[in-house]
Design goal:
single chain; alpha/beta; Glucose Oxidase, domain 1; eight-stranded mixed β-sheet; 16 strands; about 15% strand; binds magnesium ion; kinase; EC 2.7.3.9; cytoplasm
């Protein structure tokens, strides 16, 4: 048995197909017949185009036009004179062999794109590598990178899968995939969730642990792969798989159903997102809105903070895609376990109790204002709610709102539009805020309970520590009391309360939260339908 990261839920039982990209050796050798080498390159480009057109058509069918657009971009690259034209010139001017010409031009482009400020442009480097891999394989006569999968119930095992590898998976044959590397948010994992096939990533050495033809059970819920299981295990998982599929089918009926309890209370079930594109999953699963956009992800994996315009684009995108459904965006929550390479933070004994989130933003207003201005400018494109993380008392909320007012005045002077209709709220994730909720509720428009932190602070049990995880209990009576106090405090003043911590999607906790009168639940997109079902069954 191997444990990895559960990337896409579901169960599959099938035969292993190890997908290996053949090693193609690139030499320094010069060519003499330049015309022949250029013709060979041309043929490789044409073959790549034919393959990509086919992949695009298949992707359009299985994943929709929007996801398939990436392959249109790949096709455009094949015709780009700056890219493939440069390869020809490399052969012509330097007598480079075709493979070396492809590699050199690719490296130059990848370097340029990877050093760009714009995150979107940096991500394009992956597309260039992907296209280049295809051209190289075709040039070397390795028949492209397509799978030779003919058998039904195949489990693809690979070191990693590129987006085009994943899109090519024939869903009538491939029932799951397993990779050595990757995390829940790696491209292949995102694609697997879109395709709705179970997947486990980050299995480290699965390509060498299994061999072609092995029977494997993929448990995409627990992130477990069971290799050559016995009959009893096979039977048990076959039953689990059937049950899961029947449940999923049944849940789909709820996509456009409004979530109302038996006693007639309307409850919003929303999705949490970390990247703008995640809104698609929220919509596909019938989410009523976005209950938490963790904006710190926009700041990660880069060398400098995103500019006002970059952030504006991201927020506008989400608001537009949600078409008038509410989007709750949380301001930067950095510090604690989330650090940025370009923002050195002081060494602290207890960083989770230290300089983080709103504390840092109020101290570093120049950083905070960039985000607030971007949020204000984007607000005209939809129904925006903004919340501040780690609020411990009224002063912080008032101070944050003062910075908002400063930004509004600046934008007004610059003649830039913003909406006056934004809701301003706070995360309730510090016990003090929960205890003081009835006072805070007089000043805010809404609360969103962050149970991930609220539980750790209430029970003094570090959310990252294995050793004290037995204490980290969402259903601890003290935690429940704080949640109840928060909801009652808000309702006393006619304000609504959401929950965006993991507890909101915890099927065991949902009935209690409904009973307390929670107005909005926000969770990972794939949990939305399951949560809707439970809520509908409550009084
Ligand atoms: C929380 O604390 O519950 C929360 C939603 O925020 P994060 O997990 O990002 O700290
Ligand atoms: Mg938190």
């Amino acid at each position: 048995m191997k444990k990895g990261i559960a990337a896409s839920k579901g169960y599959a039982i099938g035969k292993v197909f190890i997908q290996e990209h053949e090693e193609i050796v690139i030499t320094e050798e010069k060519v003499t017949d330049i015309v022949a080498e250029k013709a060979k390159l041309q043929k490789a480009l044409e073959a790549s185009k034919v393959q990509l057109e086919a992949i695009k058509a298949k992707a359009e069918e299985s994943m929709g036009a929007e996801k398939a657009a990436v392959f249109e971009a790949h096709i455009t690259l094949l015709d780009d004179p700056e890219f493939t034209g440069a390869m020809e010139l490399e052969i012509e001017n330097n007598q480079s062999n075709g493979l070396k010409a492809i590699a050199d031009v690719t490296n130059t482009f990848v370097m340029i794109f990877e050093s760009m400020d714009d995150a979107y442009m940096r991500e394009r480097a992956a597309d260039i590598k992907d296209v280049s891999k295809r051209i190289t394989a075709n040039f070397a006569g390795k028949g492209g990178v397509d799978f030779a999968i003919t058998e039904a119930n195949t489990i693809v095992v690979a070191h990693d899968l590129t987006p085009s590898d994943t899109a090519q998976l024939d869903r009538s044959k491939v029932v799951a995939f397993l990779t050595n590397i990757g995390g829940r948010t790696s491209h292949s994992a995102i694609m697997a969730r879109t395709l709705e096939i179970p997947a486990i990533v980050g299995l480290k050495d699965i390509t060498t642990t299994v061999k072609n033809g092995d029977i494997v059970i993929v448990d995409g819920i627990e992130g477990i792969a069971i290799i050559n299981p016995d009959e009893a295990t096979l039977d048990a998982y076959e039953a689990k798989r059937e049950e899961f599929l029947a449940e999923q089918e049944e849940l789909k009926k709820l996509i456009s159903v409004k979530t109302t309890t038996k006693s007639g209370k309307r409850v919003e079930v929303c999705g949490n997102i970390g990247k703008p594109e995640d809104v698609h999953q929220v919509l596909a699963n019938g989410g009523d809105g976005v209950g938490l956009f963790r904006t710190e992800f926009l700041y990660m994996d880069r060398d400098s903070a995103p500019t006002e315009d970059e952030q504006y684009d991201s927020y506008k995108y989400v608001l537009e895609k949600m078409q008038g459904k509410q989007v709750v965006i949380r301001t930067l929550d950095i510090g604690g376990d989330k650090t940025l390479p370009y923002l050195p933070l002081p060494e602290e004994m207890n960083p989770f109790l230290g300089y983080r989130a709103i504390r840092l933003c109020l101290d570093r207003k120049e950083i905070f204002k960039v985000q607030l201005r971007a949020l204000l400018r984007a607000s005209i494109y939809g129904k925006l709610a903004v919340m501040f993380p780690m609020i411990s008392g009224l002063e912080e909320f008032v101070a944050a709102k003062e910075v908002v007012d400063e930004c509004k005045a600046e934008l007004k002077a610059e003649g830039k539009a913003y909406s006056e209709d934004i809701q301003w709220g706070i995360m309730v994730e510090i016990p003090a805020a929960a205890v003081y909720a009835d006072e805070l509720a007089k000043h805010v428009d809404f609360f969103s309970i962050g149970t991930n932190d609220l539980i750790q602070y209430t029970l003094a049990a570090d959310r990252m520590s294995e050793k004290v995880s037995y204490l980290y209990n969402p259903m601890h009576p003290a935690v429940l009391r704080l949640i109840k106090m928060t909801i009652e405090g808000a309702h006393k003043h006619g304000k609504w309360v959401g929950m965006c911590g993991e507890m909101a999607g915890d099927e065991a906790a949902i009935p209690t939260l409904v009973e307390y009168g929670l107005d909005e639940f926000s969770m990972s997109a794939s949990s939305i339908l399951g949560a809707k079902k439970i809520i509908i069954d409550q009084q």
